[in-house]
Amino acid sequence: MSALVIGGGIWGVQRYIHDSQALVVVQCATTVGSVKHTLDPEQAGNAATISAVAVGRGLPSRATSIALATAFQESKLRNLDYGDTAGPDSRGLFQQRPSQGWGTQAQVMDPVYAAGAFFDELVTFDYRSMSVTQAAQKVQRSAFPEAYADHEDLGRAFASALTGQSASALTCSLRRTTGAGSAAAVAKRMESEYGSSTFSPKVQGDIVSTRVSSTEQGWALAQWAVAHAQEDSTVSVSYGGLTWTREKGAWERGEGHDGAGTVAIQLASAAGQG
What we know:
Layout: H1 2-22, E1 27-32, E2 35-39, H2 41-56, H3 61-75, H4 105-108, H5 111-122, H6 132-140, H7 152-162, E3 170-173, H8 183-194, E4 202-204, E5 207-211, H9 215-227, H10 229-232, E6 234-239, E7 242-245, E8 250-253, E9 262-267
């Protein structure tokens, strides 16, 4: 009888965990004033990659805002492997066309390359004196030039967080991990997206950490890590005396890390963490 009771208890706990996870609304969000802007984890991860390329190049937040509004209009911030009637060979986050000199199909399907190609073109003119839609159109030469303006607020909101202008502004609500993460893979991604000279990540077990040179840079990286948390199986990110946890999906006061100078990212060691 006792074995049956214990077994039933275990089943009940497992059922409760399963049901509670099913109720989690999986999304990433940032709020500007009273307006909340949301993306799903795939979109947020791609937004973080675009922003990282801009930050690594030392570009202002305005450049990231333009790029994010553009990519949302072109692909909904998804790395599409197909085009449309207007651009049958268009590919990637920015729907760049190999036939128009943007690179090979493999290159434009690489989010880091695609973001870099976008910024290469953007910095050839005075985009800071232009509206988002004017700047985006000058780069993209779209058949629907006014459409970029529809996503200006979303682009600005996520750019503000992902470039470190707004501290602890980006959060992600996620379910428990489905597998272990890799600190080494996160360190490699960090160097790939920001450039190898921006950070010097250190890997210790399930944690990757790096010193940062400013508060703005620290919050840019910390929120980049949260935006990538779904695919990286991240369970916590700490910076500036605050910690985002997968369990809470929010930034709270944390302990144990050099708040001002170090970003620490902890990955799951097994499935079901967070």
